[in-house]
Input
Amino acid sequence: MSSAVQTGRFNVYWLLVAPALLLVLVLYAAPILNVLLLSFADPKPGLGNYYKIVESDTVSRLIFTTIRLCLITTIASVTLGYIVAYAMLHAFSTMRQRMMSILLISFWISVLVRSFAWLMLLGHNGLLNNALMAGGIIAEPLPIMRNEFGVLIGMTEYMIPYAILPLLANMQGIDLRVTSASRSLGASNVQTFFRVFLPLTRPGIVAASLLVFISSLGFYVTPAILGGGKVQMIAEYISVQLLVTVRWGTAAMLATLMLVSVLVLMYVLNRFMRLSTVFGGGPR
Amino acid sequence: MTRGSSGIGVDFDRVTKRYGNMTAVEDVSLGIRAGEFLTLLGPSGSGKTTLLMMLAGFQDITAGDIRVGGQSIAAVPPEKRNFGMVFQGYALFPHMTVRGNIEYPLDIRRMAAADMERRLGAMLDLVQLRGFEDRYPQQLSGGQQQRVALARALSFEPRVLLLDEPLGALDRKLRADVQEQLKDIHNRVGTTFIYVTHDQEEALTMSDRIAIMNRGRIVQVGSPTELYERPRTVFAASFLGKSNFITRNGRTYALRPEKIDALPAGKGSGQNKLSGTIKAITYMGATLKLMVDVPGHASIEVQVPAWRNAGQFAESQAIDICWSDDAQVEVEAGDDEKAGVPPVRPSRG
Ligand SMILES: Nc1ncnc2c1ncn2[C@@H]1O[C@H](COP(=O)(O)OP(=O)(O)OP(=O)(O)O)[C@@H](O)[C@H]1O
Ligand SMILES: [Mg+2]
Output
């Protein structure tokens, strides 16, 4: 870090990034501002779009569904992610490295591919149903996919790696001698986990939960494919408003709503844990 | 707390620990008496922590047995062993206050709240931390944290207290203070203390007995006086205190620097005498350290009281060094690391 930045003096080298900065400002901030304006201006000026949150059954049900799905996804993926992170923490180093690469690879597989993979595995004509029917265990295919449950499976699976990273960062910061100390003081393995380890991972749990929840709000492809048209979340609804029914005001209002909720949650997250730590910057 | 729990004896019976094909502890037999303050002293990597971890139950034993009060503890999980343990770095629970830390083992044992409060008070008095009960570990100094760790380990009146280099993080002055307090606490509670350190001075001043370890083995066990005055091997002599080694008739003798007299050339007398020149003089406050070159031999370190000899000696001055027969101790060269020290041959004077 240069001293110029620290003393707050203007550094000429900032000029080098100025074009990029300008580009971001114009191409990114301006449209967002436009969306904000639209939500108050289209089709007619006022808070009309926002009244829909309480007035329109469709919109309020949509918001409710989105929050519910995101909450369940958060609980499920943080719980499962916690188990994986715990296993990684206690694995031998070669094993841990292997687990880490698998984790990173999973980030590169697109959400579209994953959704179709789930259909092939658990869908109507999927591997599981075909095998069970061939084995004569069931007569009708199990309705796992193309409903809310299917969407939850897809979302949870996608979010688990996002839960693992902050949890692992947090766990790696814990001096494991405290767990030995707890045992030597008379606490069993289980007591040690609940009274010492779990409380020490609370910042990680909070960070992982907020991160997963925020990211889940934007799910679009997964509910569209795995929900079989029966499960709609905000992101998909916005696209329908834009492309099919052409009600930009409603779409803009929902987009603004999402943006504001994300910002609020980010603020909370930042209070609990420095953002850089969550995204792998390491504790300071 | 006055003489709460009384200690219990611990017996290591031919204990061996291997990691793969690396042997960390080899065939260690050691009897520790009830209420004793025993120190494990040895260089880094000599197996001290491993020995302690096997006793505490965090490492399993490859061969041999450990008995506490005559009972084998091989199958007992760590939480059932009832040993207090002070870890290197203290390992206090950062999410609990001093009170929470000290009461933790009592709470686990479902002690009644009133008893717990009383015990907490007694512990805080013992380690002189009254008024700190609502602080978190991060809000304490190193020495205070160390005392909390001690109070926590003693609060449930364990029969044995294990301390793994508990003073490593403290500065010299604080170390001396806490050493004294530890010794005092040991005298008052009567628990068996097993203390790990690689600081020889600490071992000498605190222990009832010291076990010197090297490369996973116990080299010698004895009281501080015994070990200092009558080391059995070159390693024991050079690890606990300083020593010159002198070979005569195929035998090796250890000779402490402060047991040698230095006199101007020609004035020397005594049962053993060597002539040489002073290579270097170091003023150490209480003593004057002379490195003496003996022709044809390695240099010998001599320490004489500084106040009486100031100004008497100068570098490259010729001097006589002498000592009596009872100042030297015959030692085994053995397979020690320090056996490479070249011995010198004195002339009979
Ligand atoms: N988990 C392990 N796996 C393999 N080797 C180990 C393991 N733990 C310790 N060792 C080896 O066993 C030997 C003894 O280690 P130990 O920790 O007991 O030494 P120590 O006497 O406590 O040293 P120090 O004074 O540095 O703490 C060392 O050579 C160490 O490298
Ligand atoms: Mg050690």
User: Anything to note?
Assistant: Residues 188 and 212 of chain A are 32 Å apart (CA to CA). Chain A has two domains: 1-41, 56-279.
